[in-house]
Amino acid sequence: MKAKKLLLGALAMALVLSGCNMNNTAKGGLIGGAGGGAVGAGLGAAIGALINGSQGAKLGAAIGAGVGVAGGTTAGVLIGRKMDKAKAAAEAVANAQVETITDKNGLEGVKVTFDNGILFKVGKSDLQASAQQSLRQFANNVLNVYTDCDVDIYGFASSDGSDATNLTLSQNRANAVSSYLTNTCGVRASQIKKAHGFGEDPTYLVYDAAGKEDRNASRRVEVYLYASEAMINAATEGTLQ
């Protein structure tokens, strides 16, 4: 009976520890149960000393892993639901192609692609009128609503022109989108974490089914929405709406 009470107390402590003092990466890692494994190891050692050596360690590890997976799954579900809402809002934006992606923490995110043929004239980085309208809609319906999403903006170019020219052009285009969103559309500058141009990096060129480059598709700007630290904290605490 005493051992059972000690076990219940240790489990309660594990539940507390699994939700506190964790950085962004650790909280994201809960989705895979990594946090649970770490909690389990410490819990196993404590129970092993109180109960019966290796048996207690095995029992503690199992409990700790269960705590981590359960907590991570709940956070992941809440973030997934929030991102699904952001995705649905983005899908209503004119000239935007939207898809679900997985971020570096294994959490659900949203990728929004704007064709450079809509955003810019060939070889230019000045936003066209139709692009401004789409970006205003994107800001009003998505970014200014889902303010706990962090944002990265990436510019790309086709293989036309020199490497240096395309690198500068893609960076200027990413900057143009970022500046328009923040200076004209009211998006908080702190929400946009990165604006980066990749030029004509062959890793990111787009090819058709015949293996030929689709230059129009290669010329594009991609906007990524992913969970901020504030969103992850709220999801971990179960308060994310």
Total beta strand runs: 5
Give the termini separation: 41 Å
Rg calculated over all Cα atoms: 23 Å
- Beta-strand fraction estimate: 15-25%
CATH architecture of the largest domain: 2-Layer Sandwich
Mean of residue pLDDT values: 77
The CATH first-level class of the largest domain comes to: Alpha Beta
Globally, the shape reads globular
Pick out the low-confidence regions: 1-50, 55-71
Strand order of the largest sheet: 1-2-5-3-4
Tally of structural domains: 2
Total helical elements: 9
Under CATH, the topology of the largest domain is which? 60s Ribosomal Protein L30, Chain: A
Helix content: 40-55%
Q: What characterizes the major β-sheet?
A: 5 strands, mixed
Would you list the SSEs in sequence order as H and E?
Answer: HHHHEEHHEHEHEH
CATH superfamily of the largest domain: OmpA-like domain
Find the structural class using helix and strand composition. Answer: alpha+beta
Layout: helices, strands, pairs:
Elements: H1 2-17, H2 24-29, H3 34-50, H4 53-91, E1 96-102, E2 108-115, H5 116-119, H6 129-143, E3 149-156, H7 163-183, E4 192-197, H8 215-218, E5 220-227, H9 229-237
Parallel strand pairs: 3-4
Antiparallel strand pairs: 1-2, 2-5, 3-5
Helix pairs in contact: 1-3, 3-4, 4-6, 4-9
Structure write-up:
- This protein is an alpha+beta fold.
- The protein has helices spanning 2-17, 24-29, 34-50, 53-91, 116-119, 129-143, 163-183, 215-218, 229-237; strands at 96-102, 108-115, 149-156, 192-197, 220-227.
- α1 runs antiparallel to α3 (34-50), α4 crosses α6 (129-143) and α4 (53-91) crosses α9 (229-237).
